[in-house]
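Minimal example, chain plus zinc ion.
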Amino acid sequence: MLIPHDTRIALDTVVDLMNTAPQGNRDDELGDLPALRTFVQAHDISDVGRLTDHDLRAVQDVRARFTAIFAAPDARIAATLINQLVAAAGTTPQLTDHDGYDWHVHYFAPGASVADHLAADCGMALAFILVAGEQERLRRCEAPDCGRAFVDLSRNRSRRYCDSRTCGNRLHVAAYRARRKEAAG
Ligand SMILES: [Zn+2]
Ligand SMILES: [Zn+2]
């Protein structure tokens, strides 16, 4: 599956956004404006202007929509949710070859709010995964105490754990066992 650089970045962003949500004994990591500012800077979301409480609530709402898309039981339901999300964001597809990248499309409208920016670009990245018939790559970590979202971009779609420090370790152990098994078989 060939994934353009912006799609890959958008997939990282959507996963990071979803994983700020409170879960188990983890607090909401996007609970106030300073946290939103940090998120916007860390993910290089350009041109979003001065952030307000309205932006914070809108981003939390978009986050919940992404969570629902990952939880969709089939592609039809996921497609409906993605369509609604992207339509509400008011996208303006623009071809660009900025910063030496090959031609690709930016979806957010000029001057879009941070929530609309995320909904448009991350929503289209998920649309791209669906078009490729790869909905099953939108996953949750199977570690019992984790449940973080991730996108499995492994060749054989075999990833079960996220790459957080604890789970990444399990991942290495599992990969090691698989290699041993392969070598033995
Ligand atoms: Zn770009
Ligand atoms: Zn995990």
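The CA atoms of residues 51 and 92 lie 22 Å apart. The beta strands are 94-96, 104-106, 138-140, 149-151.
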